[in-house]
Design brief:
Layout lengths: L9 E5 L4 H12 L3 E6 L24 E5 L5 H11 L3 E4 L6 H6 L1 H21 L7 E7 L22 H20 L2 E7 L2 E2 L8 H13 L6 E3 L5 E2 L2 E2 H11 L7 E4 L5 E2 H10 L5 E4 L6 E4 L5 E5 L17 H7 L7 H18 L9
Parallel strand pairs: 1-2, 1-4, 2-3, 4-5, 5-6, 6-11, 7-10, 8-15
Antiparallel strand pairs: 9-12, 13-14, 14-15
Helix pairs in contact: 1-7, 2-4, 4-5, 6-8, 6-10
The structure holds NADPH dihydro-nicotinamide-adenine-dinucleotide phosphate and guanosine-5'-diphosphate-rhamnose (GDR).
Length: about 350
């Protein structure tokens, strides 16, 4: 077990402005950690998810601090690890959109694969192997083409996208640094997890946002790709607790976090529309298929083939028995509650007109 300074609890979160980073930062602050986050420079504000945690550092000893940085910049990462001296690093930063990874495969590899190496090397170069525990945000996308279900830690990997392949490197370099240098470096192999702050171009949020906007008459049609893909969807709030537990146990290792239930995109659509009292009937086949509101006869869902991926992951369903046994972790939020929460939040957002952006995969 890596010797940790028993008094200092200092976390460094890469990707703190993302869905998981923001939930994790809030959770760790609640546990009394000092939390440092890395944010990217952008031409417009990108900190909406963590703004409520921010306190003016001029006020003195604030527990939450943000630093500019990028997973593609080694010198920046080395300097930050040197200055912050984190006791725990959560590497959540990534180009995390599977379809976008087909458009930007090289950048995805740079940030999602080599970025992991850069951070592990920063720890090693600074001689902090024994002082720093490292969490890598691995993914069920590693399983890709179905080899066995449910998928667990021993299931062979077969990634199906540049994102999945980049994350495969991230997974193995984490294992290698654990074995080669005795680092406390662990992978969380997390299945899809969503929330009201999920990025707007992931399918769940795209659906709940469209349901709200259609309900309020701001939009007419939801355009989707593959309706038959099946995912094991949980709530991000539950999964970040699992991430934290992965770094608190005595031995490093690799852990699946999942609900053990799977649903199709089609089922998600049906449930989300049911939240606003609409029943969807599916008519037609293939790219001609449409989702029709049974009561009004209006077409609410259409297929747009641009959202189909060159290679797809058809079925994900995870077995989190190891996490249950060794971490005492279990998901708490039922699927129906997740959908309810997301639709309710998007209704509020649509009413206030606070939602950003109209386009996206
Ligand atoms: P998001 O896309 O919401 O957040 C990604 C974060 O990474 C953002 O803060 C983003 O910054 C940052 N980022 C992207 N590229 C870089 C870069 N080059 N340098 C520094 N920061 C960068 O993802 P999630 O919160 O959903 O996921 C967190 C991690 O977990 C990701 O690594 C993802 O691949 C992985 N994962 C997610 C799952 C899920 O279902 N949510 C499941 C399994 C794994 P910005 O805000 O500026 O864009
Ligand atoms: P995924 O999430 O690829 O599983 O990766 P996403 O929500 O993008 O897709 C889920 C499934 O829905 C199908 N789909 C669509 N997807 C999007 N984005 N937009 C559409 O219009 C659409 N129509 C159908 C997809 O084809 C796919 O089968 C997420 C990310 O968070 C990754 O970073 C993470 O590693 C995995 O989850 C676990």
């Amino acid at each position: 077990m890596a010797a940790q300074d028993s008094k200092r609890r200092v976390a460094l979160i890469t990707g703190v402005t993302g869905q998981d980073g923001a939930y994790l930062a809030e959770y760790l602050l609640g546990l009394g950690y000092t939390v440092h986050g890395i944010k990217r420079r952008s031409s417009s504000f990108n900190t909406a998810r963590v703004d409520h945690l921010y306190e003016d550092p001029h006020a003195g000893n604030v527990p939450f601090l943000m630093h500019y940085g990028d997973m593609t910049d080694s010198t920046n990462l080395i300097r930050l690890v040197q200055e912050i001296r984190p006791t725990e690093i959560y590497n959540l930063a990534a180009q995390s959109h599977v379809q976008v990874s087909f458009e930007s495969p090289e950048y995805t590899a740079n940030a999602d694969a080599i970025g992991v190496l850069r951070l592990l090397e920063a720890i090693r170069i600074l001689g902090r192997e024994k002082e720093t525990r490292f969490y890598q945000a691995s993914t069920s996308e590693l399983y890709g083409l179905v080899q066995e279900v449910p998928q667990k830690e021993t299931t062979p990997f077969y990634p199906r996208s540049p994102y999945g392949v980049a994350k495969l490197y991230g997974y193995w370099i984490t294992v290698n640094y654990r074995e080669a240098y005795g680092m406390f470096a662990s992978n969380g192999i997390l299945f899809n997890h969503e929330s009201p702050t999920r990025g707007e171009t992931f399918v769940t949020r795209k659906i709940t946002r469209a349901v709200a906007r259609i309900e309020l008459g701001l939009e007419n049609t939801l355009y989707l790709g593959n309706l038959d893909a099946k995912r094991d969807w949980g709530h991000a709030r539950d999964y970040i607790e699992g991430m934290h537990r992965i770094l608190q146990v005595d031995e490093p290792g690799d852990f699946v976090l999942a609900t053990g239930e799977t649903r199709s995109v089609r089922e998600f659509v049906e449930l989300a529309f049911a939240e606003v009292g609409r029943n969807i009937e599916w008519r037609g086949k293939g790219v001609e298929e449409v989702g029709v509101d049974k009561a009004s006869g209006k077409t609410l869902v259409q297929i747009d083939p641009t959202y189909f991926r060159p290679t797809e992951v058809d079925l994900l369903i995870g077995d989190a028995s190891k996490a249950r046994a060794k971490l005492g972790w279990a998901p708490k939020t039922p699927f129906s509650q997740l959908v309810k929460e997301m639709v309710a939040s998007d209704l509020v957002e649509a009413r206030q007109g606070t939602a950003n952006g109209k386009h996206g995969v």
